[in-house]
Amino acid sequence: MEELLRTTDITLIPLAKTLLDEMGIDSFELDVNMSVLEGSIGILPRRLMVRRDELDQARRVLHENGVRFED
């Protein structure tokens, strides 16, 4: 698995997952339970992972749908 994006924006990962699911690209969210440790204030980023062989396609899908993320 490779990191596709890392964000503290709680709306970005559900959006990205939905777009990827529609294209048949499996994704997995990491650091979801860190909110328990941080008190749900949103300072620790969550990561969205995809398979290495689907990374380029996943980036393209997000880019084409206007999702901004860092490479």
UniProtKB/TrEMBL annotation:
It comes from the Bacteria. This is DUF2007 domain-containing protein. Gene3D superfamilies: UreE, C-terminal domain. Transmembrane segments: none annotated. Residues 1-65 form the DUF2007 domain. SUPFAM superfamilies: GlnB-like. InterPro entries: DUF2007, N-reg_PII-like_a/b. It comes from Pelagimonas phthalicica.
